[in-house]
């Protein structure tokens, strides 16, 4: 197992769950100059583009305009003893005209950000997505209302009142190797030249290790062994946790591709990957992904 901190993993944020249940938490923090407010519109975050690109964390006392537009305000936790709130703007075609910043996709700009800022913005984005998807109770269909600082949605139905909690869907992602060879694949929708390790969602009734074996068999037709946990990465794009594994396969077994998901798959020699051109002819996985970490860790083993 690698004790590695992946991008989008929060560390400088104390989630301070005990504060969520205090009814006046949000009210009290909202207009304080100590409070930091991150703003989410659709899946985008608010950035200041006037100087070097940086995320906008507005002091609560300067965020009146944003609070007026916000549909929900969520308490994310404490950063260096300062409350951090996420403001969820309406899901309109265009964002409201704010006096500060511009809305950009975190995943396009993560490399310019401090890792803690990126992690907090990813967290906010994931919670906002959950709010958008759970406006109505899945049990009875009545509207839900936000409670516990935005971390619980409670059904407003008179006879129901069910509590709904944020969802994370686990997915496995696995590096398959055979000695100095590593199996990489390509999905038809990816950027030109983009390659990655295989991945797939957990199904009900499966262990993570079973999912690894099943997904590899389904996608490329081979049977893997020695499935071992590597590390995990939050992936709130929109609602996953990527659980990384390593496993061994044989490069002499025929690859039979699931053409719906896999455009091509191939065993690559370590020496070949070490000189990857990183262009549209061949790209290793994106650098913010656990897929890249799985491959890089293996390349460094030599
Ligand atoms: Zn209900």
TrEMBL record:
InterPro entries, A to Z: NAD-cap_RNA_hydrolase_NudC, NADH_PPase-like_N, NudC-like_C, NUDIX_hydrolase-like_dom_sf, NUDIX_hydrolase_CS, NUDIX_hydrolase_dom, Znr_NADH_PPase
Sequence ranges assigned to domain Nudix hydrolase in this UniProt record: 166-294
Keywords: Hydrolase, Magnesium, Metal-binding, NAD
Gene Ontology molecular-function annotations: hydrolase activity
Enzyme Commission identifier(s): 3.6.1.22
Keyword Hydrolase: yes
Record-linked CDD domains: NUDIX_NADH_pyrophosphatase_Nudt13
Catalytic EC class: hydrolase
Name of the protein this chain belongs to: NAD(+) diphosphatase
Organism: Kiloniella antarctica
